Amino acid sequence: xxxxxxxxxMLALLIMIGAGYLVSRIGMMDEHxxxxxxxxxxxxxxxxxxxxxxxNAVGQISLEAMWRVGLIAAGMFLIFIIAGMILSPIFExxxxxxxxxxxxxxxxNVGFIGIPVVSSILGEEYVVYVTEFMLVYTLVFYTYGITxxxxxxxxxxxxxxxxxxxxxxxxxxxxIIFGIPVPExxxxxxxxxxxxxxxxxxxxxxxxxxxxxxxxxxxxxxxYVFSVIKLLILPLLMLPLLRLAADDEVLVPVSMxxxxxxxxxxxxxxxxxxxxxxxxxxxxxxxTTILCIFTVPVLMICAGY
Length: 305
Hints:
Helix content is 76%, strand content 0%.
């Protein structure tokens, strides 16, 4: 697949973001609507997309590939944690605020943006791979992420791991592992409802862009440097290790998409809850989301897709 083929597929996603921006600017979507829409994505449509991708992929994905994806996901977060420790002092001198940059390195938007990207470039049947990354993400966030910010481990935070995303994620894994046949009418309903995820998620990004101060996003040189490291340099440095772990013609590009995803919302939410200054994080989320439209095609070409 050529650079421009992937680029135009990513450009289609950018148009969806633009649609969300436009309807927000003309007053058709406000913060209340966006919050409700985001809740539906997280608790209904995204979990159903995960489940439908597994139901439609029964017999098409080997258990060996699923095990490899799990190991790759664990390895990705381990490398990101180490990279965050090394890089955060470069971008932030304040010791407390430095934790935000560590979270920004580690916690990418593997679900909200990762699912639309994998679905559009590689196919909906490979969203099930994203599920494993999301499950590992959840485990790492509620252990390492909470511990980093609080300075201590809290067992109570693990209760938040039980949510529709993880429940349907586990269900999707069981469907694949045991080859459980799902009735056609359930697959059809889950697929149609799950397909709502991509346009709604991207429209939500457009809403965030409509509320942002462009000067704070596009006039901070350190955020551009951080974005290039996050979206390009780190994934490309990890590519040789990925090739040692997997030689599948689809598994490598799926993993590279996961490596190169923009910053997720969880560092912003967690930092806000703990009283940290999250202005740089908010700007970096939007900047990396826009820039990934251009960096993902580069990663795909380097991955040989």
